[in-house]
Specification:
Number of strands: 0
Radius of gyration: 20 Å
Number of domains: 1
Shape: globular
Helix content: over 70%
Largest sheet: none
């Protein structure tokens, strides 16, 4: 095998390892949130923001790369863009943590199953992309699955659609942003930092803060929210630079699959026949979408 081809394969294999690690960590994340479910969702979210920024600042200091910051904060378009992505990210995190700790792990998995199809739909609306025939078929099949869940299960799947739409819009805005993954995340977390810190100080002032005032395990897990937030994102960013988007897109189903299995077999969430039928319909849509991507990738 030529040396150049061996180098390409090694890089791709390393990217696959990084991607699998990132998606497995995201898939197992419900276990982490369940461990601190006695805390309020707002407090958990604020700790996630504060400790994430601290880790990111350490990483940027190690890289000694701060030149981008002045350009970013003096550019109105960049500021407005990342103000929007920060708010959307906060809404996504808040919905996700609340859903996990309220017993809706299965529905959160549904949100990330349909996210790729939401991305295609957003591309049509905002980027004037033209989906191929089988992509349209996949979107329509998925839409029928959501409709069936709404009618058959009797409840509109707002958690799943909120997670899918916020993550899709977040990706759409980041697609047009000028900063890379780590710099962009630092901007978003930096925007959220002061409100989050102010809320935590308020909790401390009124005497209802949890950090160092509750069980030792909880006081350890709260600062670790930064680790479980930043590490998978960095692994994902490293993977994206080393592999094709088609392969990366297929591996993304690892996370919602693990979440689904956790919800049903570990935390005992009820999965009725009508709900399962809706999931199967959406999985069929994802199968169509994935096969179409593989074929187009080979072309």
């Amino acid at each position: 095998m030529p040396k150049s081809n061996w180098g390409v394969m090694t890089t791709q294999n390393r990217g696959i390892h990084y991607a699998v690690e990132a998606y497995v960590l995201w898939g197992l994340l419900p276990i982490y949130w369940k461990a601190i479910q006695t805390l309020s969702v707002r407090e958990i979210l604020c700790h996630r923001v504060v400790w994430s920024l601290m880790i990111i600042v350490i990483m940027l200091s190690y890289k000694k790369d701060w030149k981008w910051l002045q350009n970013a904060i003096t550019n109105p378009v960049t500021l407005i863009t990342f103000l929007g992505t920060a708010c959307i990210l906060a809404l996504n995190w808040l919905t996700y943590i609340w859903a996990i700790n309220s017993g809706y792990i299965v529905e959160t998995s549904l949100g990330y199953f349909i996210n790729p199809l939401v991305n295609v739909f957003l591309g049509v609306i905002f980027l004037r992309e033209r989906p191929r025939f089988w992509q349209w078929i996949a979107i329509m099949v998925a839409a029928s699955g959501v409709l069936y869940l709404t009618v058959g299960y009797g409840v509109f799947p707002w958690i799943a659609l909120t997670l899918a739409s916020t993550f899709g819009i977040y990706g759409l805005l980041r697609k047009t942003a000028s900063l890379n993954a780590l710099e962009g995340l630092s901007m978003e977390i930096g925007i959220l930092f002061l409100p989050a810190l102010a809320y935590l100080l308020y909790l401390e002032h009124v005497g209802i803060a949890s950090f160092v005032h509750t069980q030792i395990l909880t006081s350890i897990l709260l600062p670790s929210t930064g680790v479980v937030t930043v590490i998978p994102l960095l692994l994902f960013a490293s993977a994206a630079r080393r592999m094709t988007l088609t392969t990366l897109g297929l591996l993304q189903y690892i996370a919602p699959t693990l979440q689904f299995l956790l919800g049903v077999f570990v935390y005992g969430e009820i999965l009725t026949k009508s709900r399962m039928a809706g999931f199967v319909t959406i999985w069929i849509a994802l199968f169509i979408y994935s096969i179409e991507r593989i074929i187009e990738g080979k072309r």
